Every structure is written in structure tokens, then in C-alpha cells.
Amino acid sequence: MEKTLAVINQLEQEGLIERYAIGGAVAATRYIEPIQTYDLDIFVVLPVSPSGLISLTPIYAYLTQRGYTPQGEGIIIEDWPVQFLPVYDELTEEALAEAIEVEFGSTPTRVLSAEHLAAIMLKTGRPKDHARLTQFFEFDALNQAILAEIVARHGLSSKWESFRERFLTENG
Amino acid sequence: MHPAYPDISGILFAKAQRRLALAALSWEEKVAIIEQMRILLPKGSWRQRPADKKLPGQLHAVPRRD
What we know:
The structure holds two protein chains of two kinds.
Chain A: H1 2-13, E1 19-23, H2 24-29, E2 40-45, H3 57-65, E3 69-71, E4 74-77, E5 80-86, H4 90-97, E6 100-104, E7 107-111, H5 114-124, H6 127-138, H7 144-153, H8 157-168
Parallel strand pairs in A: 2-5
Antiparallel strand pairs in A: 1-2, 3-4, 4-5, 6-7
Helix pairs in contact in A: 4-5, 5-6, 5-7
Chain B: H1 9-23, H2 27-40
């Protein structure tokens, strides 16, 4: 995956993306046990074109010129299927802005914080999100005070109460 | 008379310990495990198992007895 990240760093250096951070299962794996996944989810802020449009086309054009192959909803970069996900709401925009600077091997990269990942899972709310979120608590991976602030700031309190009642209480 | 079920608490304890040990690995080590999983079970490969193949008009791959 380190080679994949080096290519994505190149995209950022060349201005095809303004900022990126790793999300999804690969990011979650930083905080809990390894999770089976086939994709590397990359949250991105894309430059706005002069016409005001945001498009992934320049990224795909750059990558295909370098021999990488689009597949399904993503593109294979150095053996990893990568999905570029433009930030799609205030929560993901904040998550990307506050992503943590880390190194993977010797390659610099960014990863979403555990608390932002948890809030995104709470908001998305699929069964696999709930299962994964439960693991974050099981492995004590969260600062609950920070999570509570994010939950309140993004109007997720009722989802949080519902999740807590169902998965984190003795009677749930 | 109830059958004598085996005590599997030792197995469950060992599994829990293993999960903790996996979670404590470095991110790079954990991603290497994910990469191994992808090699061992490529996406969609479970659908290609002979036992999962359905005949035309068949609702379930393996005939059910219910």
C-alpha cells in the first residue's frame, strides 16, 4: 500500500487534489483489529474548475496515462483498488480538515481520526458500520469526549442514543 | 438427560487474546494482513465456488431440506 500512497501524494503535489486522507476500513484498521476489505477509500477535496464544477475526471486522466486501470467505482493503483470520495457533507469536510498526519512505512500520509471515523459510521448506519463501531468501543479506541462533541456538532445525537441503547448497554 | 457439552471457555479466551494481539500490531503490519486476506479470498471468489453455483430456476445453490 505504500507505493499506492506515494502515487496519491503525487496527485496532491501536482494539484489534482487539494488535500486527501485515508478513510474506510483501512483507516479503521489503524485503531482496531484488521478488517477484510478490498478497497482503499480516499477522501479528497477537489479543486473547483473555472466553471465551478468538481470532477474526478482529471485524476482518472492523470492515472490512466500512467498505466493505472479504472475498475468498478475505483481505479487500481499499485495493486490496490482506490476509491476517491469527494467530501460530501460538513462531517466529512471536517474529518478531512482534521485528519492526522502519519507515516505509513516511510511515506507521509493522512488518516481520519478514530472519532471522525466513528461519527461517519454512526451517520452512515449500515449494519457493517454498527458492527465496526462496536469494535471501536471494544478496543477502547475512542476519546469519548471528542466523539460527543462531534456527535453534537453534526446533529447525530439521536443516532448516537439509538446506537448506544442498542449496542452498548447491558439490555440492548 | 442433558448431553455433556464441552467447556469452550478456553477457546473463547484464546480467541479474544488473539484479537487483542492483532489490534496491537502496527498499522503497517495490519495492512499486510489485509493484503494477505485479499490474496487468499479475492473479491467475488466466494460466488465462484461450485457449491454456490445455482441451476436455472433454482432458488438456492445448495438444495435446502426445509
